Amino acid sequence: MRVFPFVLNESRTQRFINHTSQPFMNTRQDAGADKVGHALNAQRFQMLEDIARELAGEVLFPTDFDAALHLHKKLQQPDLPTARVAQIVGMEPLIAAKLMNLANSVRYNRNSPPARDLLAAISRLGIDLVRTTALAIAMGQLRRSKEMAEFGELTHILWDHTVQTAAAARILARTQTQINPDEALLAGLVHDLGAFYMLYRAAQYPELRCRPDSVKYLILNWHESIGVSLLGVLGLPDEIVNATIDHDQLRKAPAAVRTLSDIVHVANILAGTSFELLHQGIDPKAAELEIVRHQFSELQAEIKADTQEMMAVFA
Fold first, then answer.
1. How confident is the model at residue 15 (pLDDT cuts 50, 70, 90)?
2. End-to-end CA distance of the chain, in Å?
């Protein structure tokens, strides 16, 4: 398990810290008894308090997530020669194989001879897409880790939504803006990283492992602010981090998609909101959401095809 030191950005998470510092009523229970009522409520917020402490000091990632994440960080070095990138990627056979598959997919190899080695594959894809693919595989390792097995169905739903959002973000960037589609792909891919991490942490609390509805409630309310802080641990650019802020908050439907934040917000809606549950009390067919879906309905077929292709690469 790798430890990542990180200084908490107070302005982004003050509400989170204040909320988790509230006192809780305790009920007397027999030793070892399952927690209920106020005691269960305290257990939920114990997890949030623990996460807040981690964000203020050291963040722990599971081992399976760590190897690909470490590779992603290595690839962030500026001005890396392509040959050196190939050497770094070659140390992770799983990632190398998936990059070869991606380089020879229909999307990236319509009229060229197949890439026969890793150097050719990386030259075709570009360093930005190589970094994003490494991170996508890291997230795939996280969702398949033994710690996440308790929430298998929820993790599967989250992963499907994540890949669909990433595909929609790339297509929106390409068709609606001048923003780099690979940058939008990355923003869509990491927009719910906080939810993945909360699932991993929830699995470490016995009373939460058997209560997926409690975990959903916690994720619903806190995954955005936790995710923003976690992206800082990964060293992602500010524009990526800022684009994920409040991505689930209902907004007036934009007349046009102009910014990376717009892209993530719209892509999140087009990917469906089954995971986020649209926040409690919001009708899934709320007018603003329907406007967005109708406005970009012509992209849905392409989003579906792109999602299926990405699933095959990142699986």
1. very low
2. 23
